[in-house]
Give the backbone structure.
Amino acid sequence: MQKENIKNSISGAFSDDFFIYPDSLKFSGDHTFFILKDSHGKYLGAMGPEKLIMESGFTDQVGNDISIDSVSGYIIRLFNRSYKNLKILLSIFPELHPTPLGTDATFGFGDRLGIANAAHIRAVKKQKAVLPVLAQQSIRELSKTGKDFKTVIAQSLWNILQEGYLGRWGADADHIKDRDHFIDAAEAGMTMYTFDTSEHLDETVLNMTGTRIKENYRLDTDYIKSIKKEYLDKKIELNGNKFIFNEDTIIRLALIYGRALEFTKEIFQFLSGKLGTFDYEISFDETSTITTPEAHYFIVNEMRRSSIEFTSLALRFPGTFEKGIDYIGNIEEFDRSINIHGFISRKLGGYKLSLHSGSDKLSIYPSFARNTQGLFHIKTSGTSWLEAVRVVASVDPLFFRKLFRIAVDSFNENKKSYHVNLDKSALPITIKDIDDKNLPCILDDRDLRRVFHIAYGMIIEKEKEQLMRLLFENEEKHYDYLLTNFKKHFDALRY
Ligand SMILES: [Zn+2]
């Protein structure tokens, strides 16, 4: 059958109770696949000769077969979107798998609910500047949403199938600290591995005088000696900035970063032994140690000396990066910082700079994009979650008020896993006085954004079913909100 005839046959076979996602049609020989939904849920549809469908191995059929053409023997059969069925689809279309994305400009779309990626893909299709990292979850997010890496990839794939995305995409095991989690991520097929070094940095050195350091640390170790040999009195000039590695600077760098770099190497060797190619990101962002230009140079040079291949580096920039709200700090100071770091990264070459907690950091996006000249990665997640909450506020005020109560009541508990510079006493106790029609606007409030952002685990735990139902029933609105939001993000990247 011709593709046009197939399309017509499929759409003609279903009543108005069904919606077929127009971009989802995929062809393989006589087999055609598509994603559709009715008021209960979403399904995988397969059309082809009956014998072929019987032998395809798909299980978990929904409803009865629909006969398309009794002469040719074509039928349509619907299946649940199970993991097993997804595996079969992947064997037919192996190009759907995530891949490492190297130093291409990339944008991470964390999707805690597993349904926002469809809109992310629609946003990505409208531009050519970045490739998407569609599956991106940290260990913290996995534990709060009750998911594992395998589920995260599967959810992204169902979104990809629904939207007919054909481009390359990545899967980021974000902010991993333990070896065990790297094992899980590698086994699930993640393609990008973000090592969070925060637990291996010695930040006490920052506040010590040189004398105190000498009293507290052994400085005659082989490691310190080798570092001194490599860096002492080294002068580096970048774009008019001169960096001199004197003894005090070198010793501090070695003490702060030495152990983290050792572990970075261990993880790299472990991943290299298990995987072919992969993207490796080293993150220094969730610490209070602002990365100096000397530290940036030192980190990269040390990794090169240890033959660690890495794709991106998340530095700690000046200012405060709270999730789901704009940058807090002096934009000029950020600009000066990223200007130097951008130079260093281009000079040393071969890796990108990564901006974490990128959700809604619109005021610094132009500077970040300009100074990295396309060698960047950005991670967002909270901003997509907040658009889901905004849909609730706009269609079901009563339910939204309930979620507000949960978020405020659990604030102190939620604060334990996120750094939020906000006190419970500063929060509104009630939103009773706010009219229903104004509820979506309160999600533009900096404080309430943070309250709802850190409450996602609690809300999912208590109200997941109703929330997912509501978002399913208001799917196009949910996608529209996300598209509007990411248009703002992408516009800000055009400098
Ligand atoms: Zn981070």
About this structure: The chain has three domains: 3-94, 96-203+229-382, 388-492. Residues 247-274 form the longest helix (28 residues). Residues 175, 283, 285-286, 314, 356 surround zinc ion (CB under 6 Å). The chain has a mean pLDDT of 95.
